[in-house]
Amino acid sequence: MLLVVWTCVLVGALAVPQHSPVHVADQARSESESLEEEARTFLAGVDERGSTECTAATMASWEYASDINERNKKIKAEAQLKYADWQKESWQMVKKWNGRWETLSDPFLKRQFKAMSILGTAALDKKELEKYNSLVTDMSTIYSTAKICDYKNPKKCDLELEPDLTRILRTSRDYGELQHVWKMWRHASGRKVRDHYKLFVRLANKAAKLNGFDNMGDMWLYPYESDTFREDMAELWEQLRPLYQQMHAYVRRKLREQYGEEYVSKRGPIPAHLLGNMWSQSWGEVYSLAIPYQGKTHVDVTPQMVQQNYTPRKMFELSDDFFGSLNLTRMPSEFWTESIIEKPKERDIICHASAWDFCNGKDFRIKQCTDVTMSDLITVHHEMGHVEYFLQYKHLPAVFREGANPGFHEAVGDVLALSVATPKHLAKVGLLDEVHDDDEEDINFLMNMALDKITFLPFGYLMDNWRWDVFSGKTPEKDWNCAWWNLRYNIQGIKPPVQRSEFDFDPGAKYHIPANVPYIRYFVSYVVQFQFHKALCIKAGQYDPQDPSKPLHKCDIYQSTEAGNALGDMLKLGSSVAWPEAMAALTGGKRMDASVIREYFKPLETWLTNDNQKHGEFVGWETDEVLCTSDGPREAATGEPSSATTLVPAGPLYLLLFLLVGLLLSHRS
Ligand code: BJ2
Ligand code: ZN
After folding, report:
1. 135: number of CA atoms within 13 Å, CB side?
2. Is 477 designated active site?
3. Digit-coded pLDDT (tens) for 551-561
4. pTM check: above 0.85
5. Ligand 1 site, residue 365, Cβ cutoff 6 A
6. For the segment 83-132, what is each residue's pLDDT rounded down to a tens digit?
7. SS3 content of the chain, % helix, strand, coil (to 5)
8. Which of 383, 502, 605, 617 is catalytic?
9. Of the listed ranges 149-153, 388-392, 544-548, 621-625, the one predicted with least confidence
10. Is ligand 1 within 6 A of the CB of residue 76?
């Protein structure tokens, strides 16, 4: 500081003539300083007003999502339009800075202008935007209010996804019941949104084009700031596929032992309804069928939670305590008063768990129809991770109040949950009686984790692969459902329990499609969370690559303020730097790296490879069944396994048969 003052005095003392180079440089400096100042004031103004507008729009969305009725729907629609007006207005103001903001020297200011140069769907004209918004609202409402009839009591028709259908998928081992629930859920949800989705895709692409992108799939990738993103994802998946295939072969054998070979064949894809989850997206709920060592400690603690009278509140407090133990920010009092953590009885709400930032630095909430299960305890941590990110970056301007990339946001709570789920930690909180340092218990634990994490990877990868091709037009409307099943078969190795057709719309039976939430973020998260875990475990002194008694999968970062501070430092950056910088701040590296997840599961991978070999299991899948036809019967399905033959649409075959019969009849007469 002193040095600067001295320089100035010196320059003045030399009495430099008016047009000397020194004076010009001086003038240029002061011009650029005043431009920076102007930019700073401008951005602060936009930020303040933007936060207020954002709070109003978020509040209206919350009101609707937590009390679905016509009045709230109308208020939400109006608030969305008002917010879009503001977005357009501020975008136009920002545009006036084009040609000037690029010359700013402060990278923090420049990055704000860059981030604000994309308008988003507000680029649509008012009528189209209104339609686009109402399509998304209607699709998520159809999904969230869908009900089906009971399998054994067909007159009882009030079964909802949460908790009823989720519980049946989790606990029932009745092939027919599972098939009924799987199929009827898709009738009640996906099928009903297919028409909405057609218009939705058109409007989404129109908005993307107005923003200078080819289609909405491309626009979704903008926050990743990478030209090779799709290729990078494909490469990560290739690195992880061998481990998934070992899991697939092992679980298929276990399901075959449970249901019999007529339902689960030796070399075929796995029937999608037997995996404990409506979308076969993670298979943790079939752990009881897949435990490697039955006699050893079981690490699914749902029964203990129920027995100890756990409540949703207690689950949230447990999670809050974990964040607090790391010296991270605890949930503020408004969080506890305003969040909805149990399903209300008297009204319809969007039950799918979510975390909310009301853009005012004070109000942060979670809405979750919490069930007392271990899987929901993990989801509680997942949602709390979002809120922790919100809290850590609340000091930043609104444009930076995002994850370094969307996958980072998804990873925070999951990273903590990796510690929470360890037997050592579960014993610490009284959910397991005793833990033994024993290889077989280790394999039991890793199996439980892999059923959640490894089996999710192909699903996390394929959801947006399907949407990218839909948005780009590579998959035409007439093939939407069969293209979905091609991916489900090729990438996940699963098959529908009953033949599908283009009358169905199975992607629409998964929340993020009707609610229009991009999904590749979860695939990214499942990779980077292991990288974050490793970095934090090193900081916590819980992991040492040279010490076999401290492997990655046994690490529990609970109470490590070193780990918590390092995580907090990354979260505080929000999206103010490109994600490789944020990644480097925590892990020292700048790339997404699948080798860490492979390292974590190494003992299980070795065990699985041996076990599959020992049982002569076929690793991979093949089939000659028709899984999906373009114009198949509207109502396929009985309780029997399907017996169709390839993935080729059967339309032309029917036509041929029809002509042959016609020919035969005319010949006879
Ligand atoms: C249960 C979880 C989402 C999430 C919700 C709904 C959609 C977005 C938010 C955002 C968060 C943000 C979810 C968990 C793992 C796999 C996936 C699934 N719900 N969202 N507002 N998950 O990500 O928390 O809360 O970024 O602000 O959907 O398929 O279940
Ligand atoms: Zn999330």
Report:
1. 21
2. no
3. 999 999 999 99
4. yes
5. no
6. 999 999 999 999 999 999 999 999 999 999 999 999 999 999 999 999 99
7. 60, 5, 35
8. 383
9. 544-548
10. no
